[in-house]
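Case study.
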Amino acid sequence: MSDAFPIEVTSPTPLLELRGISKEFPGVKALDDVSFAVYPGEVHMLLGENGAGKSSLMKVLCGAYRADAGEFYHNGEKVAIASTADAQKLGIAVIFQEFSLVPYLDIAQNIFLGREPKGRIPGTIDRRRILADARRVLDTIGFDIDPSTTVDKLGVAQQQMVEIAKAISQNARILVMDEPTAALSDRETELLFALIARLKADGVSIVYISHRMAEVFALGDRITVLRDGRRIDGVRPADVTPDQLVRMMVGRNVDMTYPRNFADKPGELLLEVKGLSAPTGISDINIEVRRGEIVGLCGLVGSGRSEVARAIFGADPVTSGEIIFDGKAMSGEPDLAARRGIALIPESRKSEGLALLRSVSDNLVVSALRKLFPSGLFDQRAAQRTSDGLIRQLRIATPSARQTVGLLSGGNQQKVVIGKWLAAGSKLFIFDEPTRGIDIGAKSEIFALIDRLVAEGAAALMISSEQVEICHVCDRAYVMREGRIAGHLARNELTEENIVRLGMHHA
Amino acid sequence: MTDISKEAMMPPRSFLSQDAIQVFYRLLAALLICAVLAVLSDSFLSLGNILNVLRQASLTFFIASGLTLVVLTAGLDLSVGANVALSACIAGTVIHKTGSPALGILTGLACGGIVGLLNGIMVTALRIPSFIATYGMLWVLNGLTYWYMAGETLHGFPAGFRQIGSGYLFGLPIPVYLLLVFLGIGTLFAQRTIWGQEIYAIGANPVAARLSGIPVARRLLLVYAVSGTMAGLASIIFLSRLNSAEADIGESLTLPAIAAVLIGGTSLFGGVGTVFGTFIGALILTLVLNGMNLLSVSANWQPLVTGIIVILAVWLDMKTRRRAQ
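After joint prediction, the assembly is written out as follows.
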């Protein structure tokens, strides 16, 4: 069972083997009976859509998460990975996308952070030795830099090298890399690939998470595809085509249905974005949204979807381009966008959508204060009456409008965020991952609500990593890749495969 | 049995708002202090002493009320005391030069307001943390005032002007009337206007407030300007009451004002608190100091007692709020 690779391998026993790993979070099965083996000196590519379980598997590997079920074998011997210390002892190191370096310390101090060679005087560091040790580690990975350089002077690629040096200095035998080329230039990518080849030759195994087809085939010795927390297949690059991989990642689960009454004919143009670029990394964005439409905005996490939403809403500055809303050009802060009738339902409801310590009522009326109280005088009772109406309309489960909003469930909190824009009478609703962390029942309620909104003449722009949802709910969708619109899919072209194909890096 | 435990697991349903509960506890504490002092000291309940307490409390309250709004937005204004000193000296000079108290009052308020606005600009446009911006402003204002006054003392103002700080109307000191007026205005502004609501929202979560369409920068400018203007008002009352102005009159004002805000239940993390709470905070602070005077406890102990009360009040707040969560 555990041997998914009947083909001969360089070494018969895997360096590390995971059997039947499961990990559950409230409401989600992040990993479901996943088995996974890493052989010495191989590059093992880990593939899957957003939310397929790659990150969870990586965190189980490095001991950040404790698996609910499953076994670990190291060189054939049963071991436990219950903490990051356990993982470190087994020689597992992870290079996250967000580096964990201390910017104001130098390279040598970062490499040996917490393990500094002690000087003669207690409490001091043996400066000469730490520099020499760092030099030696940097040499083994062929990184020619002065180890006394402070890390904040380094570029992304160099910081990555320091992270790798740090891992090597801890005798890492398994290096897990999460999209290591995401922020690198072509030249830097080449250097990284050369380093990976070198590490491989030294017998280090690499687990490589990637969204780029080209590197999957260029680097990978084997590929494991995850989907919905399950291991779908393990293959060798020579035996598959990119198209086959995409199909494995997407699957064909069409059992989910959401209510949607598609309009025969979309209404008038409500939002027109022309050639929009922003310092946040999006460029030349062109988007149109009409009344009565739900338009999807998809692409991988980090492809610039949220940045487009924030730029339209005025939350981030833009460098060039035009935003025309309801026939008039618009530029300014979110308060202007909100007054004109744009609503943003941000990705992170807790940190960006709600004042968690305030009441449901306070949160529901916060965007509608000017509309509800044109005189400027606030009336708590009138605010509660409005809130009670919204609570009934949206079926928000709360004991009263005075309940602290932080005590509600995720789905009900999301309804409060949507409710505040209903109170404000918004015309365009921009949803950023509206169903993240919400159970299935609340999901279909929220989609029914969006459907009702657009049926009544509003419009919606919906960002989602759940391609099934986009396919079921949207009239059409834009797909983003690396800060640009990679393509547009009309209703009849809207399939998960097309979304993934446009969103992946084929170059 | 299971039903009962289930009910206990349910989130608390709050019939009284947290703010109301906190103000209630504070009123109780103030009354308790009064009762203890009434027993321990014969002169505590005399009319003269009670009016004295109210007048003292009003001086702290004027500064602390504006500061409350700043703290509600999770900010801090450390420049209020220095602002009082500069505004008082400038207002005093204007009265001396022109002989017009009205013009002096206007200049004092304007000076305070402009300083507050500058604080607001540093916090919003330059994105300097309020703690640092207003701390720097404190030094700048001190420097300006010392340079301007050059060691001089302004002394002797028209009798009419002195009435503001020392006069009585129907047996009550005039500052007490002003206290009631500004307590009313402050409470109305914070609780009954949409700007007040927006200020609470900003303090509770500035990111969510901005993404909810609240013009955060404009509201912060307003809040700092109000805090400065209230310092300007306090400067007029000081000037009138002391009948003199020196460069160093502001030095002992900022920390008691912050103490009143904290004892009054306004959280330094923002979004929680009331102007009325600050009034009771100022009252408690004054009562304790007054009581120590009456009981002939050495004034050297006063800072220590103030410190303990601040820590106790904030600790109790955090405990009750945590339980409410």
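Observations recorded in class. The radius of gyration of chain A is 26 Å. Chain A touches chain B at residues 313, 315, 333-335, 337-339, 344, 346, 351-359, 362, 365-367, 369-370, 373, 376-380, 399-400, 402-404, 406-407, 420, 424 (CB under 8 Å). We will return to this complex in the next lecture.
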